[in-house]
Amino acid sequence: MSKRVYIYTVGCQMNQLDSQLVADLLGQLGYQVVESTRQADIILFNTCSVRQHAEEKIYSLLGRLKHLKRQHPQKIIGVLGCMAQKDQEAIFRRAPHVDLVVGPGQLVHLPELLAQARRATGPVLAVSPWAEGLDRRTLLAGFEPFDPPRRPQAGQPPFQAYVRIMSGCNKACTYCVVPRVRGPEQCRPPEEILEEVHRLADAGCLEVTLLGQTVNSYQYHSGGRTIRLADLLAQLHQIEGIRRIRFLTNHPRHMTDELLQAVRDLPKVCPCFHVPAQSGSNTVLRRMQRGYTVEYYRQMLARIRQTVPDAAITSDFIVGFCGETEEDFQQTVRLVEEARFKNAYIFKYSPRPGTKAAECYPDDVPQAIKRRRNNQLLQRQNQISLEENQKFIGRLVEVLVEGPSKLGQKAPETQATLQLTGRTRCERIVVFPGDRRLAGQFRMVRITGATPTTLLGHLEEQPRGSSSQPECEMLLPLLPISAPK
Ligand code: 5AD
Ligand code: SF4
To answer: Which residues make beta-bridge pairs with 4?
Structure first.
């Protein structure tokens, strides 16, 4: 029986990681990942429910497969991830040609579920039990961790990897569907995380990004001790071969001094904090049940900047949340102007069925106003991002070269020098001409230009043995590279 699988992914880094893990798990069982639905025997959609738009996109893609399924009824179509957990059997009603629906808390069973779907005895549904008032223990048991051992270099590219340190979320932000579709917070044992990062490092990984919905609330109790994110960072820092450690997403309430000091003191830990504010108005923050005031958030920003002066801080905002007035919105604009984020992701509020906001508050800000507020905030933030990026002009920065840029990808395979992209420690994207074989290497780039999203520059060849220090405060001190084993 042929086993070719196509995986389409939408959504956050957590979903991208899940898809990589699914691809690798199936790869270990003899499946081959292919690039198109036509070539595939199994078509999987790994889905997102955070906003309606993401769901509509998947339903529309599913609709387009109706014909293909009619022509090739033996092809298996599966819906994985957040939308699977949220919509459950409603997916079979809306798209009757779907064979398989698997929530994020059931991915661990995917191989058996696929085998079941291939026996073609009817649609297969595997979701975690979820009901109002269900006790925590049952809920936790229903959302099973999905952290299968990966083969070395399973990720693409091999020099960067996401590592899940926790799943689910214990917060109750009223607009957010995540706790419902990914379940309560569950932290992975530190030994397991360390082992995974050791294995990744041995396979040539240079940069890990630790993932969690509220990554800075990580805590694991073991042997009378509590290991928190700061402790985990210190332990990961000792792993030879790993040159950069990132973590996201942070919650403002868990930005402890210990964590800030760890970022300051551990040179491999990148000074980047993605810490969503969501709004600059206390009335809105209260209605969102975020658990802090804007004054608290401002103080938190000040604490970050005091301890980690070069920190690149990024944020998320929702505009047009239920009841948001023009004055509430102007308070958000003021926060954005003061905070000078490196960048901010701005979303129009999208009511999510099953959330408190969708049930209790009318979605009363008209679309046109949501759109206008979105554009206005984005414009303001873009101007700030540009000004912050322009400060880099003339500086030398160290980048981890990632490969051809979007433009560079269009160049013929035979062309050696093309536009490459790399990333600084502070997560700024740098575009510069260079040899495609530089991917996966650290290089110095002199910055000559800037846009709101990108720095432009050229490679600077350091003379061998030169001791001249680049003028970038974001520079990682050169660490000894691990000796070959
Ligand atoms: N509508 C719009 N944006 C949302 N987000 C989460 N839920 C919603 C929603 N219902 C945004 C938040 C979060 C980011 C991942 O998505 O800003 O931080
Ligand atoms: Fe959603 Fe709030 Fe949890 Fe973030 S912290 S995943 S916004 S509930």
So the answer is: 32
* Ligand 2 center–CA 250 separation, angstroms: 10
Residue 51 DSSP class = S
Tokens (6 digits) for 390: 């322009």
113-141 pLDDT per residue, tens: 999 999 977 899 999 998 888 888 899 99
* Substitution site in 49, 185, 213, 275 for ligand 2 pocket (most atoms within 8 Å of beta carbon): 213
Q: Which residue has its alpha carbon closest to ligand 2 atom 5? A: 171
Q: Residue 253 CB: number of other CB atoms within 10 A?
A: 17
Q: 11-14, long-range: CB within 8 Å, 24+ apart, which pairs?
A: 11/46, 11/47, 11/48, 11/50, 11/54, 11/81, 11/82, 12/48, 12/50, 13/162, 13/209, 13/211, 13/248, 14/164, 14/167, 14/182, 14/211, 14/213
Cis before residue 157, ω within 30 degrees of 0?
yes
CB 177 within 8 Å of CB 132: no
Tell me the three state secondary structure of residue 184. coil
Give 285 Cα–ligand 2 centroid separation in angstroms.
13
Rounded CA-CA distance 23/35 in Å is 12
349 lines ligand 1 (CB under 6 A): yes
Q: Which residue has the tokens 């004054």?
A: 295
Give this prediction's pTM: 0.94
**Residue type (1 letter), 139:** L
CA of 348 to the centre of ligand 1 (A): 8
